[in-house]
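[SOLVED] Need 3D model of a two-part complex

Original post:
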Amino acid sequence: MFQFELLHANKEGSARRGRLRLSHGLVETPIFMPVGTQATVKALSSEDLYEIGAGIILSNTYHLYLRPGAELIAKAHGLHGFMNWKGGILTDSGGFQVFSLSPLRQITDEGVYFNSHIDGSKHFLTPEKVMEIEQQLGADIAMCFDECAPYPCSYEEAEKAVERTTRWAERCLKTHYREDQALFGIVQGNVFPELREKSARDLIALDFPGYGIGGLSVGEPKKEMYATLELMDAILPQEKPRYLMGVGAPEDLLEGVIRGVDMFDCVLPTRLARHGSAYTREGRITVRNAVYAEDFGALDPSCSCCVCQNYSRAYIRHLIKAGEILAHRLLSYHNVYFLTKIMEEIRKAIEEDRFMTYYQEFLDKYKL
Amino acid sequence: MFQFELLHANKEGSARRGRLRLSHGLVETPIFMPVGTQATVKALSSEDLYEIGAGIILSNTYHLYLRPGAELIAKAHGLHGFMNWKGGILTDSGGFQVFSLSPLRQITDEGVYFNSHIDGSKHFLTPEKVMEIEQQLGADIAMCFDECAPYPCSYEEAEKAVERTTRWAERCLKTHYREDQALFGIVQGNVFPELREKSARDLIALDFPGYGIGGLSVGEPKKEMYATLELMDAILPQEKPRYLMGVGAPEDLLEGVIRGVDMFDCVLPTRLARHGSAYTREGRITVRNAVYAEDFGALDPSCSCCVCQNYSRAYIRHLIKAGEILAHRLLSYHNVYFLTKIMEEIRKAIEEDRFMTYYQEFLDKYKL
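Solution:
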């Protein structure tokens, strides 16, 4: 089952307040989805994620296909059963990972030959194969197999990727049968407006229940990303959810929402945690720095998460210096909570028609 | 504050049921203390430890002295404040670590010169200095600075260590002033009964509120350990707690309790977790093994911990293979819960005068 309901549009700008009805519960949008690449949001348990209030998480088809394999996960009643997660799950198609992680790959119209980044073994993924895998994984939302052209690339290269992405989207649709799983198309087109528009119109014609905006935040200037989002906002159907793939820095969440984006995902909060960094309302801090050695305050003094209520910067810095994995866990918890909380505030601000004020106040305070 | 109350002695054998009254709450004995070497029980939060029901944990003076330093911890209102733990804490004196971890060391009657295992820096620890550190750390129970002779060693070597341990214990007593912290003596003497007896009698004369039994489980045959414990049971005052240091395999907990031991600590449950192993009622299993790849059952099917209620062997094996730290966390939680639960059962069995039956039934089932 899948439904998207648009509850309220902010009076100014394109910010929207919506609700996804998934096979595993309701998800209020705009939403940030924490990333559980290998069927685990790094260092966090499902119980942590319930406590944080994460309604939907993302997992990676490419990684799970290679290890532990989709058949194994199907035997565990899908990803939900395997990782014991009762909320929503979205699986990306592996398209991006095949292009970014595999040391050797060859793309044909049929599919992609690549070598595993784990053991070098050879694999061939087609849109049909990816659909088989994603349906075995059994997420609430699956993404089409797409070709994500690199940045920078030529117009011709980007055009070819767009055309292939459309043909692959058609093949995905034909192979997808699970009614408890929604299949989203992915708009490509790099930073070329004509190609973005063509890709979007191709996919709109295929009538997907939702649309991913792929191939952004891959090195292009921010203004290119914003321009693309504005174009997508104008073209993509208002009544369907838009998902900005792989984007999730606090400032980008705001910039996305103001341009009509409903869904986000990003590895940043857990990756920053592993690097000893934490989000605060004033910007990111690197807790491992010596300046925090005797700072007995919370990571973010204004935060109400259980890490900020119970542990100090000095203690977490000690854990980092001592190589203790509790550091990753506490920082991951706080960082994911931080983004989840921001999205909650954003939703409330939209409901109350004061998102523009929220946007401005947040960014005035948050140092990049 | 410190009190030990003997509630019940099992009719057969020397098993005892007692209660420690510490500055941070009551602790029911016999008790297993999880080890938080660097002010963290590896991979577990304080909240986890409350949930598991750990009443008292151990931390290491040697490690904390080197990093982050006792002054810093004192500024955080001691270890309890620093790591946010409201239960009991025992700090060992660093004696064992100086001898086992430091690459270079020189022992004199005054104290021990050694090089840090972290950065090679030179340090000098005396009984007075250790007391200063332990009082800065502020645990509920502190241990005397002792000399732990290696196994095997000559009678003369062991005798020298016993004599030094007694003199150092006297110096510790003279320097120890915190009334909210109990100071325990440590019995040494290797596997020589005469030396063990001498060490115990020396320390009894100093009238400590509790006694550690040190220098065991360092390579000697089990029967030597058992014989030493029986000797200690006969000599040490009944009305004071006995703490078998560094011992905590399930079978050893039972063997200790039956010989009158009240307290245990061991890094094994969290170390085994990092090696991908879990305790079950039938013995240890190595979850990383291929045989568990499609085993969707709990780590220990009879266990009621939240890991066994929610996650499968197959999932945890996947986490291990994928290098995900959630594996350490889930295994650590279960293993610490397992030992805590056994101690709870042991206490109940003693209260009901059926410890001998419990002992036999447990060991019949538990494969070594």
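Edit: Chain A has a mean pLDDT of 97.
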